[in-house]
Amino acid sequence: MKVVGSPRTMWVIVFNVALSALVAASVLAASRPDESGPDIPLSIAVVGDDYSAGVQNRSVWPTLMAQRTGWSVANFAQPNAGYVADGQGGHAFTYQVDRAKGANTRVILIVGGLNDTGLSSPDPVGIGAIDAINKITLGGRRALVVGPTWFERPIPESVVDVAEAVRQVAEDAGVPYLDALEPPLLTRAQMQPDLSGPTDAGQSVLADRITEWVRSEVAR
Question: What is the pTM of this model?
C-alpha cells in the first residue's frame, strides 16, 4: 500500500496516536496504589542532560538535593542527551528512563531538553517526550518534568519551541511540568564562562528551585 502525505503530516499522525496511548497509560498508572508512606524518604531518579550530569562542577544539583533533603536521589543524566539527542552514545532520555526504572524509585524526574534545539522541527521532541513519559507511567512510577532553562533575554525561539513541545505532552498526560523559562531558573552570572553549563553556584540554585517544586508536587 502506498502512503501519500508529507513527512510533517506523518509526524502529526504518529504524534496523535502516541499521545492517546500515553494518556491511557497515565490513567492506568494513576490508579495504582502508592506504596510509599509519609515516613518513607522520597526516592527520585533523575533523567537529564549536561546541566544535571555536570560540566566542570564539583557537585551537581541532584547530589545537592539529596544532601539537603535526605532523599534518595539516583542521577542517570548524560551529557549531550535529550528527548531526541542521543548523547553521542545512544543515551537519549528514553534510554536513561530504562536505566532509572531499575533503581526502583518512587519518582522519575526528567530535566532539560536544550540538546534538542538543533532540530528543524519540534515534532520529534514531542514524540520523544511521549515515549519517555509513557515508559515511566507504564512502569508504575510517578513522572515529573522540568523543561529546558535559559539564562538571558531574549530566549532563542528554538529553546521556546522545545519547551512548548514538552510542556504540551506533559499537560495532555496529566504530568506535572515546571516551566524553567518564565521565570528562568538561572542567570548568566550562574553559567560557566563558555556557557556550557551552570557554575557550582548555578548548580546550587537549581537544587533549591527544583527541590522546592518537587516537594510541592509530591505533597499534593
Answer: 0.82
